[in-house]
Amino acid sequence: MEQFENNEYNHYYAYGQTYSQTDETQNNWYRPYEEPPKAPKKSRFVLKGLKYVFLAILFGVLAGLAFWGTTTLFSKVTGVEVGEEILEEAPKGDDLHVAEETKEAEVPLSVNGAVTDVSGIVDQVMPSIVSITTIAKTQVPSFFYWQMEEYESEGCGSGIIISQDEENLYIATNNHVVAGADTLTVFFSDDTSVKAQIKGTDESTDLAVVSVALNEIDAETKAKIKTATFGETEDLKVGQTAIAIGNALGYGQSVTTGVISAIDREVAVTSETDGSLITNELLQTDAAINPGNSGGALLNLRGEVIGINSVKYSETSVEGMGYAIPSDTAIPIIKQLITREVVTGLDSAYLGISGVDVTQSVSETYNMPQGVYVAQVVEGSGAAEAGLVQGDIITRFDGRNITSMEEIQNLLKYLSAGDSVEVSIERAQNGEYVEQTIYITLGRKR
User: Fold this and answer.
1) CATH superfamily, domain at 345-444
2) Catalytic residue among 202, 206, 286, 392
3) C-alpha to C-alpha distances, 159 to 40, 173, 184, 213, nearest whole angstrom
4) Four-way CATH pick for 85-340: 3.40.30.10, 3.40.630.30, 2.40.10.120, 1.10.1040.10
5) Is there a catalytic annotation at residue 11?
6) Among the options 163, 189, 204, 294, which is catalytic?
7) Distance CA 341, CA 339 (A)
8) Annotation says 420 is catalytic
9) SS (H, E, C) 4-32
10) Is-above-0.90 flag for pTM?
11) How does the average pLDDT of the chain come out, rounded?
């Protein structure tokens, strides 16, 4: 018989059976082995419950410590307290308003840093955005070729209220929105509408200004609308949030969001007037820019206009590539379109050159910059005194990209004798063209 010690019982195994012997009767008798009594089921249930409660409390403590450590690290790195409301309202202006400084607005963030809500920005900017509807009349030959039939075509676009004077409200938009239009109708944010007139256009930058007579706008609408605030674009960075507002597809104002995809992107389009190639440096964004958005606003997180959207530069076959004219480019031209008047008589400006257009085909054939080739400079003229010489190619004139001599003549109509204009030229040096900038004081037209 083999014996093993087990607390107060001695176990004996013999012939396949188990016996135990108590200490008190160790030498007197043997009885079959009996299992020690088990705890009641109710007591075991309570013990298990306490065990699970303890584990739950331990898990909660560990999770809380982990969350506290994560939020503390996030606040130290970003300087932003989680859940903090930091949306700042943009300043309001009664005239063409450029913000004194541009800084990134602080907005509600999700866990991964994405902007979750731009409704506050939209609410403050929407009263400065309008929809524009155009009607153009076109004559085409009828079934009988000697007769002409007239058809009306409707177009749509957007605009930005930029300033006003004692008589008119001025709205910036794209040139291609109003080009060829016989009638213009502007719809404000409260859905009221008024007739508008074209104040000025600039095809080379695809900008235009339309005016609305203040006495045509009812008092209730006047109290609701406001002018937009423009922000500087020189400090923009790729990846910053962008918001587009416009009359997409003519359905009314809509909002899309994205980021600044590229800055100073060179984009070329063909002029509808003479077929020349016009190249401009634009902002690229992945915020959806659809037909009807043309002339609408591209905004930063302070509600400032940083660009004027233009579908003219967008590719319909490509998704996520929209373009906008930077506000730094648009503002000087818009101001000129508002204030300029045709100068006549002895005050008319005179440049003093004869030029030849360097078209796209000529540029590609002879490896020359596109612009206006200076064929002759009049002696004693402002151009001659500024150092312009035969063979120079004018590419920019008074802040505008130039592709033809006709464009220079159109700009001269609004300039006076004695005005100074900035002119960019390409001059051939050592077998290649080098860009230079000169300033020409215009003379009197002879």
Assistant:
1) PDZ domain (2.30.42.10)
2) 206
3) 83, 5, 12, 16
4) 2.40.10.120
5) no
6) 294
7) 7
8) no
9) EEECCEEEEEECCEEEEECCCCCCCCCEE
10) no
11) 80
Residue 324's alpha-carbon distances to 95, 140, 189, 421, 445, in angstroms, are 22, 34, 22, 26, 37
Residue 98 pairs in a beta bridge with 230
- DSSP H helices, 228-372, are 327-339, 360-366
Which token pair is 116?
């979750």
User: Residue 83 corresponds to which amino acid?
Assistant: G
Query: pLDDT for 355-383, tens place per residue?
Result: 999 988 888 899 999 999 999 999 999 99
For the ranges 99-113, 119-133, 161-175, 360-374, the lowest mean pLDDT is seen at 99-113
* Helix or strand (DSSP H, E) at 244: strand 241-246
Q: Where in the chain is the domain with CATH 2.30.42.10?
A: 345-444
Reply yes or no on whether 286 is catalytic.
no
- Tokens (6 digits) for 249: 């597809």
Q: Which part of the chain has CATH 2.40.10.120? A: 85-340
- The beta strands (E) that lie in 74-128 are given as 97-98
Q: Evaluate whether 264 touches 274 at the Cβ level (below 8 Å).
A: no
C-beta of residue 109 within 8 angstroms of C-beta of residue 116: yes
CB atoms closer than 10 angstroms to residue 211: 20
- Of 296, 303, 307, 316, which is closest to residue 252 (Cα–Cα)? 296
- Per-residue burial over 360-369, b = 16 or more CB atoms within 10 Å of its CB, e = otherwise: beebeeeeeb
Instruction: Pick the catalytic residue from 131, 158, 163, 176.
Output: 176
